[in-house]
Design goal:
Layout: H1 2-24, H2 32-40, H3 44-56, H4 60-72, H5 80-92, H6 98-107, H7 111-128, H8 130-137, E1 150-152, E2 184-185, H9 202-213, E3 218-225, E4 231-240, H10 243-251, E5 258-260, E6 263-264, E7 267-274, H11 280-286, H12 288-301, H13 307-319, H14 327-339, H15 343-355, H16 360-372, H17 376-388, H18 396-407, H19 412-424, H20 433-441, H21 450-462, H22 469-486, H23 491-501
Antiparallel strand pairs: 1-5, 2-4, 3-4, 3-7, 5-6
Helix pairs in contact: 1-7, 2-3, 3-4, 4-5, 5-6, 5-7, 7-8, 9-12, 11-12, 12-13, 13-14, 14-15, 15-16, 16-17, 17-18, 18-19, 19-20, 19-21, 20-21, 21-22, 22-23
């Protein structure tokens, strides 16, 4: 009897302590990707704190590693009951060998005590398990919409991934005879949170260097497409040449307006310029050495079963379409890498499936996986989908969670969108002027896009302590002028300006 009471007390105290920690953890700007590095370098407590935060939003890797930490006593006391709880949560995601470890730990418990342990695990899963986490934090699909597609313009066309290259503009003269120094945005860099993860591969990095040395321009960039067709929030995936001029050209040349069921809709787009738009014949004729180098890297990577190599090969195929890989082959490589735990591959696969409208369910799944691992691009994208995707139920609360997590990592578009919700959300319970100002202060002096200027205008107008209508009018006029230059629909802002100036208060217009 004493043993049963002892087991019961241990189990109950474990459940209570875990539940308390899960509810009370503060927001942490660090991600579980960073915790992986901390764990590797034996900084166990720092890793533990970050994993606990990540586990709250359903990061299966964080849950798995918490199981390992408690099982092995890495910076924490050995506690098999806590370990079995975390492995049970990771097993719900079918993550690694969590189910096998869970089964082994369960088998070590006597038949007499097993019922109590299973009951306690079930209670914890009901509150913090996969179903509960999905309901609290992740997108819910509108099932009636998943087979519908977004179309563009009067002809109602569905654009595939790379079919809009004719809208893009050249941003540097292509010449193999000049030694002009070109700026190189190194997305072949060594940043764990970057898009390419080519930095640990000198052979592939040398391809980028050769492109630069030959003064060959190249740009691959992702954009949000607003309801008016304007391109917003551009993120450079890789660039060789002066990307600023290229991005400006793209920003100031709207696309046809996207429509869903004949209603204006938001969407996403990937733009290509330079050598990324050439066909195989042109590259072989004009840049034979570059072509051979690229083919060499393909041969080197294509037989590898490593997730990182599969991801890199998929990127080569996507960034250089003249390598002429089948789309099915690219999807297979990304899927293998994503299932192998490559978080950038999870994001890239989800974005590709969404952008091409081929599988919205899987797109949402993989974007959610990448976001739960703390990839800031995925966190931003998930927040945006929760606000504007025609396939997903709108949820400002969930969106704000992901946008603010991304904003903690200084993702500029996420900062602006989170600030917008704090000022203008339909759900007024989300309004928080002080938090909005903190967000905008993160990019003060760095960001002069129309939407930032508009948010500054709203902040000046609605400040509870320092209302400045003169500055509000100045900022909104600047936003309207710049928005016009970019081809944005600013009719709503013009109405706001008219309403703001239709007041008895004298306004000093500062130009």
């Amino acid at each position: 009897m004493k043993k049963i009471i002892s087991i019961r007390n241990v189990v109950l105290s474990t459940i209570i302590s875990l539940a308390g920690v899960m509810y009370c953890l503060p927001a942490n700007a660090a991600t579980s990707l960073q915790a992986d590095g901390l764990l590797y370098h034996k900084k166990y407590q720092a890793a533990f704190d970050i994993y606990m935060e990540a586990a709250k939003i359903g990061d299966a890797e964080a849950q798995y590693q918490l199981g390992v930490i408690h099982l092995k006593g890495l910076g924490q006391s050995i506690n098999n009951f806590k370990a079995i709880i975390w492995f049970s949560l990771a097993a719900e995601h079918k993550h690694k060998n969590a189910q096998q470890i869970y089964d082994q730990l369960l088998n070590d418990i006597s038949a007499k005590d097993k019922a109590l342990v299973l009951s306690s695990i079930s209670q914890f899963q009901q509150r913090f398990g996969l179903a509960s986490i999905k309901e609290k934090h992740f997108p819910k699909l509108i099932t009636d919409h998943v087979n519908e597609v977004i179309r563009y313009g009067e002809q109602q066309l569905i654009y595939p991934q790379s079919s809009l290259s004719d809208i893009t503009y050249s941003f540097s003269d292509i010449s193999t005879d000049t030694d002009a120094e070109l700026g190189y945005n190194d997305d072949f860099g060594d940043d764990e949170f970057g898009d390419d993860d080519f930095g640990d591969d000198p052979a592939i990095a040398s391809l980028g260097n050769k492109l630069q040395e030959a003064s060959i321009s190249s740009l691959v960039a992702d954009f949000d497409i607003a309801q008016d067709g304007s391109l917003r929030h551009g993120e450079v995936k890789r660039a060789i040449g002066d990307e600023r001029f290229a991005m400006y050209n793209l920003h100031t040349n709207p696309m046809p307006s996207p429509e869903f069921n004949q209603q204006p809709s938001h969407f996403i787009h990937r733009a290509y310029q330079g050598i990324s738009t050439y066909d195989r014949k042109r590259v072989r004729q004009e840049f034979p050495y570059i072509y051979q180098m690229a083919r060499l890297q393909v041969r080197r990577l294509k037989n590898s079963d490593q997730a990182g190599h599969q991801y890199k090969l998929a990127l080569l195929y996507m960034y250089f379409p003249w390598l002429e890989a089948e789309d099915e082959q690219i999807n297979k490589l990304l899927t293998l890498a994503a299932k192998g735990g490559q978080v950038n591959a999870q994001y890239e696969l989800g974005l590709k499936l969404y952008r091409e409208q081929t599988d919205i369910r899987q797109a949402t799944y993989w974007l959610s996986k990448a976001a739960s691992r703390g990839l800031m691009q995925a966190e931003y994208r998930l927040g945006q989908l929760l606000l504007s995707s025609p396939w997903i139920e709108k949820d400002e609360n969930k969106a704000l969670l992901w946008l603010e997590k991304s904003a903690q990592q200084n993702h500029i578009a996420a900062i602006k969108k989170a600030a917008e919700l704090r000022l203008l959300a339909e759900n007024k319970e989300l309004h928080n002027f002080e938090q909005a100002m903190k967000l905008l202060a993160q990019i003060e002096g760095e960001e002069l896009q129309p939407d930032y200027l508009y948010l500054r205008a709203v902040a000046h107008k609605d400040s509870p302590t320092d209302r400045r209508l003169d500055l509000a009018v100045k900022n909104i006029r600047q936003a309207i002028a710049l928005g016009n230059d970019y081809g944005w629909d600013v009719s709503g802002w013009k109405k706001d300006l008219a309403n703001w100036t239709r007041t008895s208060v004298t306004i000093t217009d500062i130009d």
